[in-house]
């Protein structure tokens, strides 16, 4: 039976090869970057830099799992997310192993859980670093470590979907759909919620009536069509709102907000919007 959903819904299907590859990629990121992260935070004591490093350590693990999982044709976001969180925890553990090795100049070196835990307790009594002449120990230090682990896991969670991308999958042809970037040369959408409703009720004029905009306009709309190159039977539309602003230093910043993602189109509507896009 054909699904009546308005938007693409992933099948949840997965395969052992895809999951194994995602696991290996995440494990590689957790170990190699765990090493880099531990040594960098030990030798470069700049709080702001370390904070970013903590987040990007987690982000890289999540991104690797998402990206490789998608290359391995895994259509199950929840499973990839759980895999990535598990590897994030392993990443935190690796970071501890390597940090202890760095702090002891290679003298203390163990992957054994109870040995690592013993070292952690000893470090908590002594303190690991000082800030403004204050050396946190005990409960305070455990809280800092807990926050650090939370930032790493937050990085992991935010990265998985970024790594996966948002393209739909064609189950009949066993492939991801290919995307056609149609245009960015139409004006911004004034009322995204109303616009979404119009599009969902197949009133595509809402899109086609958007006036043409200069490529450098402050508000633009990005229109992306996707279709299956195998069967030409699956069509989707994704629309983003792009707002450009210039800050006080004269730096141009662009902010993208998703208005709709993977709205299902029939072949006729797909062709119609494709033809409309050709005039830009
Ligand atoms: Zn197909």
Question: Can you walk me through this structure?
Answer:
- It is a single chain.
- This protein is an alpha+beta fold.
- It has 2 domains: 16-164, no CATH class; 169-277, no CATH class.
- Helices cover 52% and strands 18% of the residues.
- The protein has 8 helices and 6 strands; from the N terminus they run H-H-H-H-H-E-E-E-H-H-E-E-E-H.
- The strands form 2 sheets. Strands 3-4-5-6 form a 4-stranded antiparallel sheet. A two-stranded antiparallel ribbon has the order 1-2.
- Helix 1 (16-43) packs parallel to helix 3 and helix 3 packs across helix 5.
- The radius of gyration is 24 Å and the shape is elongated.
- The two termini are 38 Å apart.
- The mean pLDDT is 93.
- Residues 170, 172-173, 228, 230-231, 233-234 line the site of zinc ion.
Indicate the low-confidence ranges by residue numbers: none
Q: What integer is the average pLDDT?
A: 93
Largest sheet: 4 strands, antiparallel
The structural domain count equals 2
Compute the number of strand runs: 6
Percent of residues in helices comes to: 40-55%
Q: Which value, in Å, is the CA radius of gyration?
A: 24 Å
Specify the number of helices: 8
In what order do the strands lie side by side in the largest sheet? 3-4-5-6
Percentage of residues in DSSP E strands: 15-25%
Coarse morphology: elongated
Termini separation: 38 Å
Which molecules are bound besides the chains?
zinc ion
